[in-house]
C-alpha cells in the first residue's frame, strides 16, 4: 500500500475513537459535566443522595 494509505487509516481510527469517546460522555451526564467543566447535577436535583436514599432534611 502507498504511504498515504496508512495516514488515511490512522485518521479513520482516530476519528472513530473520538466518536466513541463523545458517545460515552453523552451517556454519562454527571461525568460529562465534570469533564467539560460545567456544574454536575446535584443529588438534590435527583431527590436522592449518592446511596439512593432520600434526604431527611
Keywords:
mainly alpha, 57 residues
Q: Using DSSP, what is the number of strands?
A: 0
Query: Please, how many domains?
Result: 1
Shape estimate: rod-shaped
Which range does the strand content fall in?
under 5%
**N- and C-termini, Cα separation:** 68 Å
Could you characterize the architecture of this molecule?
With 57 residues, the chain is mostly helical. It has one domain. It is 61% helix and 0% strand. The chain is built from three helices and no strands. It is rod-shaped. The chain starts with a helix and ends in an 11-residue tail after the last helix. The model has no long low-confidence stretch (mean pLDDT 73).
What topology does this entry show?
Layout: H1 3-26, H2 29-35, H3 43-46
Amino acid at each position: 500500500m502507498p504511504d498515504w494509505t496508512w495516514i488515511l487509516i490512522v485518521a479513520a481510527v482516530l476519528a472513530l475513537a473520538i466518536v466513541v469517546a463523545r458517545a460515552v460522555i453523552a451517556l454519562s451526564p454527571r461525568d460529562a459535566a465534570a469533564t467539560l467543566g460545567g456544574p454536575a447535577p446535584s443529588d438534590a436535583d435527583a431527590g436522592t443522595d449518592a446511596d439512593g436514599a432520600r434526604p431527611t432534611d
